[in-house]
Sequence to fold (954 residues):
Amino acid sequence: MFGLKPDWSLEVFERYFTMGDYAGGEARWCPGCGDHAVLTAAQKVLRDEQQRPEMSVCVSGIGCSSRMPHYLGTYGFHGLHGRALPVACGIKSRRPELDVWVATGDGDCFSIGTAHWIHALRYNMDMTLMVFDNAIYGLTKAQTSPTSPQGLKTNTHPFGAILDPHNPLTVTLGVTNVSFVAQVADWNPPLLYETLKAAYRHKGTGFVRIIQRCPVYSDNFSKELQQNPDRFVLLEHQQGIPVDKSVSRQFPNRLEHDPSDLGRAFQLAADSSKMPLGLLYHNPDAQCYEDLSSQGVAMTPEQRLAGFNAVLDRITV
Amino acid sequence: MVDTTTAEETAPRLRLTREHIVEIVSDSGEGAQKAGQTFGTVCARMGNGVWTVEIIPAEIQPPARSPAGASGIRIRLASHTVTNMGDEADIVVAFNEQVLYSRIVNGAYKEGTQVLLEDKWRDDKVPEIREQYAKAVAEFRKNGLIVHELPIEKACLEIVPNPRRGKNMFVLGMLCRIYSRDVVLAKGEIANTFKRKGEKVIDINHRLFDAGYQFAKEKLVLDYQVPPQPLEEREGKRFIVTNGNTALGLGVMASGMELVSMYPITPATSASHYLADVYHEVGGFIHQAEDEIAAAGFAIGSSFAGKTACTITSGPGLALKSEMLGLAVMAEVPLVVCLVQRGGPSTGLPTKVEQGDLLAALFGEPGDAPKVVIAAATIEECLHFVVMARRLAETFRTPVILLTDANLATGVQPYQRPEPSLDWLAPPIDQSDWDEHIPPYNWDSETGLSPRPIPGMSGGQYILTGLAHTNHSKVAYDSDSNQHGSNMRSRKFAALASTLKPPVVHGDEEGDLLVVGWGSTLGAIEEAVDRARAEGYKISSLHLRFILPMEPGLKAIFKRFRKIMTVEINYSDDPDAPLITEETRRYAQLAMLLRAHTLIDIDCWSVVYGHPLQPGMIKNVLTKRLEDLQGETPCSD
Fold:
């Protein structure tokens, strides 16, 4: 920290990054929006990990949460609705040294981007995947999202959402090669920070579903959860997300859960009576696609040219 | 029923000819294409000009003995360079009589075409098959085809238990005897084809080849000599033999692009098959994405990160990628899109040729989304244009759509081996510091061009966005920013146009009729024009490679001709069809563009038969239009 080494010598050529280095434009989310908390937590992770800002890219789709890259001091890619993940994977494919973050929402990831969500989990490329889930379409003003609770009144379902909400956790846990699945709520900053940090440090796709407040369009959804911490069960384990007592005592329901236990994780995710918080599943050894897709990146143009001539030799008549 | 017309009576002996067209047609899965490709390669190696084109049914396993299931290959070999599939075939080998019907409908044969027909159906145990066979043979003969009924499978049975697999090499042997091909060369090619299957398989195929060769020597009196191209035309040159999709793959490697991101779609996919086999040798990677959209997104991600990538697709895939293409235009991300066109709209004719995606390539995205659109006219250009596309994409910070089609994709031809140099390859990505005072879109106000920060460059951090933005890439919805950004994104293409030369006219610089084409029709159009000119018609042609920006000087060239018309493989209303008037007539796609571009009353002729245009057919259309022109006033603007 501060460029100081354990032996108290100072590395003067090393850059030290402060929160300001990770700040972009001024955040324009509504007052009280949970996205502010996520932005701050992510910036703190970057600062504490001293991630070089020019080596980070935050990729997003469309929606309120997808504005996040604009508020970061890293490179950013604010692309198309639902399509953050293919772009993020493409960035990683031939530039595995870049640090990639993805900011997406419940509509972006679980609805229009469903195909990419499933397949990106299977590719398991090393990135931090934050799904801001406020159970509503906010940017386009209150349409039902896949995770809207049944009965939630929206502009597309003024008499209340008609279907049971989609459970993104069970779907995520069911994907082959999934490697890191966590759930947090934006209004618990210490847990949010620790979870994002664990996802960042994990080699593979760190999937974090963030239950997020939208005070404008789905206030009931989050307020009810905020006011009733017994709706959650906090997952604790030595291999899980480290939380101190100040956090854990906020939750009356706590459960020791080994994150390597996929079957148990699936049961917890499927239990609609209590929402799990913390690390549901972690497999640090899952294969990462960029280890395959980056084959040959180190080849020089001379080597590529020689390779091409060898290919031509075989088809020359 | 026995053929009473003996070969001696009908077939000429040892005929010298400057060119010949051979077809092998069969049910799917009988190896006709492999035999034909090998034959074509042998001819190319012996110095002939060659063009081969596959005859592909739309289904993987169509019913046996059905006209719709016709699968096979055509080989046109000549003593000169061949640029297209030609007109009617001279010899066709058919494994059953039914598949010939679909070829006859397509005008593939003429009076006097020699048909070497498998005769086992004559004695088939199913009475209907026997009847069909007898009826067909009688019909073929009545229509002037010279049918030789041959016990091909029976002869193969002496070597292999299941002649369905293996008779193709027997036929290759026959053809090699008929055309006096170099046996050692042919056997070498067979060994090459089956090298992964081991010595035993190679040996069996060699024996089948020998048997076919011997069979033709004893049973057939067909004997043609197609001398090689003059040595001076070939001297000092080295040739490669590929189809257009392989050429695309070679172009990707030659361009230094390290990533192709694709989703399987006919007829584009074989380019990726080829690359998948060899790409690692140049350090590249094929990503098979979960869908067409993701394939484009993945490529754009890689390009954004500094490694310009390529995606290869066909019409329906282009439709799905259009939102991504709009993003790449808006955010000025270099990207190469190879579009191997097939018949449309919708799923259309997946395996057949059409040039129906020109306007979709130009205008497929909502809003104004200009990007470079170029079209390869030859198999060789499929290779070189990918190299050019990567450079254009990076220099002009734009997506580039390279159009080819099913005709180029499956046509095989020898062409000059490229001599790649380091300049062809993408340089290693720049990771030097970026002056943070220079905005990420530092547009030159005259050309619209700007340098690009690459992730990893310190000081270059910016947020790429598909929203309207300022030169700092800040989201901006104000009038001036949107107008200025649009100006700059469009200006680049005027800048590119200023570097282009006017196209070269094939034939005289002035005359009665100028035919304008684009893409794979080059060879057929020029051959048609040459034939018409030999008969004294004042016809020339011009072939466009750049569509956006349009090549310069067109109006000046057009004014030197009395009439201009395009010849294309896409839909247009026949001017003589019911209800079609000058007001209601819908024009072919290039014609529509050129009319708008030059304000000249440009005519067109285009069809969507699903097969490549043949020179004879084009020539007839051209001379007919010229005759109609007599007495008309010259076209004016």
Chain B has three domains: 7-232, 241-424, 511-629.
